[in-house]
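Question (not urgent): is this output format expected?
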Amino acid sequence: MAKKQGSIIGLDMGRSSLKLVEFLPQRREIVSVAFKPIDATRIDDEAYMSSKIKECISQTMKASPSEIVACVPGEYTTVHSVQVPNDEDNAQDFIYWELEQYLGNALDEYFVDYVGMGSNSKETSRFFQAVAFRKSEVEKLQRIIGGAGYALSVLDVDVFASQNIFEVNYPDQISSSTLIIKADLHGAKLVWTQRGEFLGFKHFAPSTPFSSEGPNRAKQIAEITEQLKAELANKKNPTFCREAVTNMLVCGDLARDEDFVAALESDTNSVLSRLNPFKELNYQPPKDEEAVAMQIAPQFATATGLALRRGGDC
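Got this back:
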């Protein structure tokens, strides 16, 4: 069979696995997904990581990728909302200056990107969402993808990708106050969003990586759920508590763990939905893999959100 052309690959490079989603934008179709475990002790071995990405693409992707979209973990970025007065002549200089004040140092060690978020109610100023990426993390990611024989087309943040895929698949819930829980083996993130606006996120790391079995498993579940519960009960941060959360979804590796989800529901007295990144997209896995594909779907939320990004996006 001749290979299709023009696919976009969303690459979610975690500390214990690679997740790739191949997307054909012309047909709005996901043509393949891939999960590849990696040795967490070799996460800093760039040649090893490059070889795993190359192997995964060559073995499972069905088209010749035209774009690779990847992300930096939110904990390695600084996200800051900046309000720029309308009479300010140079919005970029203002945003850069505000970021420097927020970070407490110069931006020499960062790449900066920003996007307009509209005007304030009196239309006297404009809001921008600015992101500062550590150059060392971005350059490392570029080298790893380059070592696999590809070029990084678009760079995103994992928490933005999670929000993106939520909005694509749950358009009827965008206006509600939503909490997305991205829970993976090496940590969990809480992502708040409402009316298409990114309100913020918090990151939690367990004292030891989560294990699917073994004597520490119950302790690790309790540790993560207690941290999440404490943050949900925190009413001191108005950015995250404009309105009561009415919608909670979980994605990531731990979304498959029944004990984790049950403990989180019990501790927060809430009902969690598993985020299905394929809900509104055209994805037809092989018949004999359909059941498994739906079970693992929440693990691919970030990778799918990345695959739906295009070159030139911020």
